[in-house]
C-alpha cells in the first residue's frame, strides 16, 4: 500500500525539489529454511540450498491444517539486498508483521528484536549498511513462533493457529537526515485528530516530532495541507521551527474552523487527507512528507440511545474477522485482505471487530474507505502470564496498536483482552486490566474501550465489567449450551443488573459444514440449516433490544485451528463465508436483512446435490424444503418452468416445499424484475424401493443422525436415519424412548469424512432395505465413539442370516475415534431385500453408516 502512496507522491504537485522519504517493498527473493541454523546471520553464510520464497510467507500453510503438531519453532530468512544506499540518507527496515519473536540482522550484526506477531516494527539500519550505487547488503531474520509465556497470546488454548513467518510486507525505507520521528512504536510519527466536530464546523489537530539526524540545526517549515476527497485544498497550515541536531522537536498544528465538514459514516465514508511536510526554509526542499487519512465524525455510547455516530443512533452490526485463508495461512496479499472488508461491507455490515489481534495495514485503510466502524484489539486471549515480561509485552502491544492505527477514522473502539477469565482470575490479572484500561485512555483520550467476556459470572464479580466503556459478551446459547431463547434472557438479565452499562455482543456463532444438511436442524449438528436458524434468531433478538449497542458474528470466515476436532478437523467452521471466502447461503440472509439493495436468493447453493423419497407409489417426485432469502415483499418460485406459488416474505425468508424430479431441477425465483436461478441435482428414490429400475441404485444411511451427509470425494449422499417401513429402509428394534444416538464431533482418524463417523446409532436390532433383486456391495461403517477399552462393546453382525462379523470388538480392532469400513458383496434374490442384524454380546452394538450400491 505504501508503495502506491509513494508512486502517487512522486507524481503529485506536493513534490518539489527533493525526493522525500522513499518506501520500497523488499518482498522478493528471500531464502528460507525452517529450522534453526548456526551462523545463519553471518553475511558470508551459504544459503544456496535454502528454499526461495516471496513475502508474505508462512511456514505453516500446509502443516497447520494437518493436526496439532504443526511446526512451532525457529525459521530463518535471508535476503541479499542490492540497492542504492547513499551516504547522506537514513535507512530503516520496516516489517508490517512477523510472527512472533523476531531478530533482525544486517551484514551479520543484530539490529533489533521484536516480540509480538501482529504489529508493525521498524529498525534503523543506517550504520549497518554498506553504501554505494549498487550496494550489497545481507539481511537475515530469525523468526520463532513457539508459544512463549512472555509474548501475548501466551495461552495454548487460544482458538487460532500461530502461523510462523514474515507474513506481511517488508519495506526498505530511505529518509533525509531531517524527518518525522520514525522510532515511535512502529507508527508513522504524525498523529491526526479532530478536537471538535459538528455538522456546522470542525477542527483538526496534527502533531508529532521531527528528528534531526544531521550535524547542524536547521530552520524548517511544517506545512499541513488538508485536502478533500476531490483533492481540493481545504486548509493549509504553515508554521516555522528550528530543529536542533540530534534531537526530536515536537510540533502541533491546529487548523482552526473548517465550516460544514463532510462527515464520515458507514453510509458516507467521506475521507479527507492530511499531507504533512517538513520543508527546509532556506531551499524550499521538501525533506519529508506523510500522508494520513482524515474523517470527521463524533461518537458515544450509552444505554439510553445506544451507539451514537454524528448525533444519530446507529446499531453496530457486523462480524469478527480472523486473518487466515485456505492454503495460505496468514500470509495474505493486500488484495485478499481488502477483499474480506469488501465482502463484509457488501453484506450490509457497518461494523467489524478486528479480532483477536491487529491486522494488516490494508484492512483499516479499507475500513476507512468503505465505511466500517472498527473495534481493534490486542491478543491477550484466554489467560495471562503473571510475569513482568508478559505485562511489559502487553503494554508494548497496546501502545503499538494505538499509535500505529491512531489516524484511522474507522477505529472507534480499542480492546485489550478476550475471554481472559478462562484461565481464572488473579489479582495480577485485575491489576493488568486496570493498567491497560488507563493506558488506552492515556494514549487515546478520544476513543472508547471494550472487553470481550465469556459466559462466566466472574467478570461482574471481580469488577472487570466495570472497567471498559463497553462490555462485550461472547455468547453461544443454542450452540455450546442452552437454547437460542436463553440468549435474549441473558441480555435482559444483564441489562436489569447493569442498566447503565453499554453492552455489545462481541461474538455469537454456530458451526456449519457444507456437507451437512438437515430438514430438522438442531443445535450442534453442524448443518447449514441450523446455522441459518441460529443467525436468524440471534439477529432478531439483537435488533429487538435497543440497549444492545451492537454485535459481531463469530466469525466472518471459517478459519484454521489445528487443535479443533469438529466436523472439519483443524477448522473452526462458524464462518458465514468459507475458508476460501465463498459465501455460505446464510451470508445472503444477512445481506437481505441488512442492506437496502434488493436481495433475492435461493438458499440452496450450499445444497445442490440432494436425495429424497417420493411420498407414495403414485408419485415420481419428492418434496423437499427450499428456503428463499429476500428483502422484497413477495416472491414466486418456478421449478422446471412451473410455478409452485407466490409467497409473502416474512423475516427475510420464504419457505417452499419443492416437488423435485429425478435429475436436474431448474429453480427460478422471481420478484418484479429481479430474478435468481439455481440448479439442483436431485435423486428421487421410489416409495417402494422394490420397484426401482435404477441400475446404479445407492442407498446410504447416516446412522444415528438427522442430517444428510454428502461425501464430496466419492459423490455419495447419505440420508438421515429413519425407522423401517415396508417397501423402504431403516432401523428395526430401536427403543426410541432411550438415547440411541451419539454425536461426538471429534477428529476421526483414517478418514476425510469425519461427520459420517461422528454420529452413530446404538442398540439397534437390525437395518432392513427393501431393495430389488440383484448384486449389491454393502459397506458397514463403524467408529467407536464411547468406549476406551476392549471387551466393553462386543457384538455379532449378519447379513441376510449369514454371520459376517463374530464377536466384533471395534475398540480392539481399531481403538476409538478411528474409521473402520467392512465391505461385502451379496446377491439379493426372491424379493427378500437386505437385512443386517446386530446381536449384542457385551454393551450395545454401534453403527455409523451403511451404504448399499447396486453392482
Ligand atoms: C470464543 C473465542 C473465540 C473462539 C470462539 C469459538 O468465544 O473468543 O476465539 O474461536 O469462541 O468458536 O468457540
Automatic annotation (TrEMBL):
Q: Where is the Glycoside hydrolase family 2 immunoglobulin-like beta-sandwich domain?
A: 194-297
**Its Gene Ontology molecular function terms?**
hydrolase activity, hydrolyzing O-glycosyl compounds
Q: What's the superkingdom here?
A: Bacteria
| InterPro entries in UniProt | Beta-gal/glucu_dom_sf (IPR036156), DUF4982 (IPR032311), Galactose-bd-like_sf (IPR008979), GH (IPR017853), GH2_Domain-Containing (IPR051913), Glyco_hydro_2 (IPR006101), Glyco_hydro_2_cat (IPR006103), Glyco_hydro_2_N (IPR006104)
- Family of the protein in this entry: Belongs to the glycosyl hydrolase 2 family.
Domain Glycosyl hydrolases family 2 sugar binding residue range list: 66-172
Its Gene Ontology biological processes? carbohydrate metabolic process
Q: Which organism is it from?
A: Flavobacterium sufflavum
- The entry's protein name is DUF4982 domain-containing protein
Stretches assigned to the DUF4982 domain: 624-669
Keywords, sorted A to Z: Glycosidase, Hydrolase, Signal
User: Malectin domain location, by residue?
Assistant: 698-847
Q: Which Gene3D superfamilies match?
A: Galactose-binding domain-like, Galactose-binding lectin, Glycosidases, Immunoglobulins
- Give the Glycoside hydrolase family 2 catalytic domain ranges: 304-586
Signal peptide range: 1-19
* Keyword Signal set for record: yes
Amino acid at each position: 500500500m505504501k508503495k502506491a502512496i509513494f508512486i502517487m507522491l512522486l507524481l503529485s504537485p506536493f513534490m518539489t525539489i527533493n525526493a522525500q522519504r522513499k518506501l520500497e517493498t523488499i518482498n522478493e527473493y528471500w531464502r528460507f529454511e525452517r529450522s534453526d541454523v548456526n551462523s545463519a546471520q553471518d553475511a558470508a553464510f551459504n544459503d544456496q540450498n535454502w528454499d526461495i520464497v516471496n513475502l508474505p510467507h508462512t511456514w505453516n500453510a500446509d502443516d497447520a491444517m494437518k493436526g496439532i503438531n504443526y511446526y512451532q519453532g525457529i525459521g530463518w530468512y535471508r535476503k541479499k539486498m542490492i540497492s542504492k544506499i547513499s551516504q547522506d540518507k537514513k535507512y530503516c527496515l520496516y516489517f508490517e508483521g512477523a510472527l512472533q519473536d523476531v531478530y533482525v540482522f544486517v551484514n551479520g550484526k543484530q539490529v533489533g528484536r521484536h516480540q509480538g506477531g501482529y504489529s508493525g516494527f521498524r529498525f534503523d539500519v543506517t550504520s549497518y549498511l554498506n553504501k554505494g550505487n549498487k550496494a550489497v547488503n545481507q539481511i537475515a531474520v530469525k523468526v520463532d513462533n513457539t508459544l512463549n509465556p512472555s509474548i501475548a497470546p501466551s495461552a495454548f488454548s487460544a482458538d487460532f493457529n500461530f502461523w510462523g513467518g514474515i507474513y506481511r510486507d517488508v519495506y526498505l525505507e530511505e529518509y533525509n537526515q531531517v524527518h518525522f520521528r520514525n522510532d515511535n512504536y512502529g507508527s508513522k510519527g504524525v498523529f491526526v485528530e479532530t478536537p471538535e466536530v459538528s455538522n456546522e464546523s470542525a477542527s483538526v489537530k496534527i502533531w508529532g516530532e521531527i528528528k534531526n539526524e544531521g550535524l547542524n540545526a536547521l530552520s524548517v517549515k511544517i506545512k499541513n495541507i488538508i485536502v478533500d476527497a476531490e483533492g481540493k485544498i481545504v486548509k493549509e497550515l504553515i508554521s516555522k521551527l528550528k530543529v536542533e541536531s540530534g534531537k526530536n522537536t515536537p510540533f502541533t498544528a491546529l487548523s482552526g474552523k473548517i465550516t460544514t465538514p463532510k462527515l464520515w459514516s458507514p453510509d458516507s465514508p467521506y475521507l479527507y487527507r492530511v499531507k504533512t511536510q517538513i520543508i527546509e526554509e532556506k531551499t524550499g526542499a521538501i525533506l519529508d512528507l506523510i500522508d494520513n487519512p482524515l474523517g470527521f465524525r463524533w461518537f458515544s455510547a450509552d444505554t439510553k440511545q445506544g451507539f451514537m455516530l454524528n448525533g444519530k443512533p446507529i446499531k453496530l452490526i457486523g462480524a469478527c474477522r480472523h486473518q487466515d485463508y485456505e492454503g495460505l495461512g496468514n500470509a495474505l496479499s493486500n488484495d485478499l485482505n481488502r477483499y474480506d472488508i469488501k465482502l463484509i461491507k457488501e453484506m450490509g455490515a457497518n461494523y467489524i471487530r478486528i479480532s483477536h489481534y491487529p491486522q494488516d495495514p490494508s484492512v483499516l485503510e479499507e475500513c476507512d474507505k468503505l465505511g466500517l466502524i472498527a473495534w481493534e484489539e490486542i491478543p491477550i486471549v484466554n489467560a495471562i502470564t503473571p510475569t513482568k515480561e508478559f505485562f511489559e509485552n502487553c503494554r508494548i502491544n497496546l501502545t503499538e496498536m494505538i499509535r500505529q492505527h491512531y489516524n484511522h477514522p474507522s477505529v472507534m473502539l480499542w480492546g485489550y483482552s478476550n475471554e481472559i477469565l478462562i484461565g481464572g482470575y488473579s489479582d495480577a490479572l485485575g491489576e493488568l486490566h486496570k493498567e491497560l484500561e488507563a493506558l488506552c485512555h492515556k494514549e487515546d483520550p478520544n476513543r472508547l474501550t471494550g472487553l470481550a467476556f465469556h459466559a462466566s459470572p466472574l467478570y461482574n464479580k471481580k469488577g472487570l465489567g466495570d472497567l471498559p466503556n463497553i462490555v462485550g459478551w461472547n455468547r453461544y446459547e443454542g450452540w455450546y449450551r442452552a437454547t437460542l431463547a436463553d440468549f435474549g434472557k441473558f441480555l435482559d438479565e444483564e441489562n436489569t443488573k447493569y442498566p447503565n452499562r453499554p453492552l455489545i455482543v462481541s461474538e455469537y456463532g454456530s458451526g456449519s459444514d457444507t456437507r451437512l444438511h438437515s430438514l430438522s436442524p438442531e443445535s450442534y449438528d453442524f448443518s447449514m440449516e441450523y446455522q441459518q436458524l441460529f443467525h436468524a434468531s440471534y439477529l432478531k433478538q439483537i435488533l429487538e433490544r435497543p440497549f444492545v449497542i451492537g454485535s459481531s458474528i463469530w466469525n466472518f470466515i471459517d478459519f484454521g485451528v489445528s487443535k479443533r476436532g469438529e466436523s472439519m478437523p483443524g477448522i473452526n467452521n462458524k464462518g458465514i463465508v468459507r475458508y476460501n471466502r465463498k459465501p455460505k447461503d446464510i451470508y445472503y440472509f444477512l445481506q437481505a436483512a441488512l442492506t437496502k439493495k434488493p436481495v433475492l436468493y435461493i438458499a440452496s447453493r450450499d445444497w445442490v446435490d440432494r436425495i429424497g423419497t417420493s411420498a407414495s407409489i403414485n408419485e415420481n417426485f419428492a418434496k423437499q424444503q427450499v428456503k428463499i432469502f429476500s428483502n422484497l415483499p413477495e416472491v414466486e418460485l418456478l421449478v422446471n418452468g412451473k410455478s409452485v406459488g407466490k409467497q409473502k416474505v416474512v423475516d427475510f425468508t420464504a419457505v417452499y416445499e419443492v416437488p423435485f424430479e429425478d435429475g436436474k431441477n431448474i429453480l427460478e425465483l422471481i420478484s418484479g424484475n429481479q430474478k435468481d436461478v439455481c440448479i439442483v441435482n436431485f435423486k428421487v428414490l421410489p416409495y417402494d424401493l422394490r420397484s426401482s429400475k435404477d441400475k446404479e441404485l445407492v442407498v446410504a444411511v447416516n446412522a444415528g443422525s438427522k442430517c444428510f451427509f454428502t461425501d464430496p470425494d466419492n459423490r455419495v449422499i447419505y440420508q438421515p436415519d429413519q425407522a423401517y417401513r415396508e417397501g423402504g429402509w431403516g432401523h428395526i428394534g430401536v427403543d426410541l424412548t432411550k438415547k440411541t444416538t451419539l454425536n461426538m464431533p471429534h477428529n476421526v482418524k483414517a478418514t476425510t469424512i469425519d461427520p459420517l463417523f461422528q454420529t452413530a446409532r446404538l442398540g439397534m436390532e437390525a437395518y432392513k432395505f427393501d431393495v430389488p433383486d440383484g448384486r449389491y456391495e454393502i459397506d458397514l461403517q463403524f467408529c467407536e465413539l464411547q468406549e476406551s477399552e476392549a471387551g466393553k462393546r462386543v457384538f455379532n453382525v449378519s447379513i441376510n442370516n449369514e454371520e459376517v462379523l463374530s464377536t466384533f470388538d471395534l475398540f480392539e480392532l481399531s481403538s476409538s475415534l478411528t474409521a473402520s469400513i467392512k465391505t461385502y458383496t451379496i446377491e439379493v434374490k426372491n424379493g427378500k431385500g437386505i437385512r443386517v442384524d446386530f446381536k449384542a454380546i457385551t454393551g450395545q452394538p454401534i453403527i455409523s453408516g451403511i451404504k448399499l450400491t447396486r453392482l
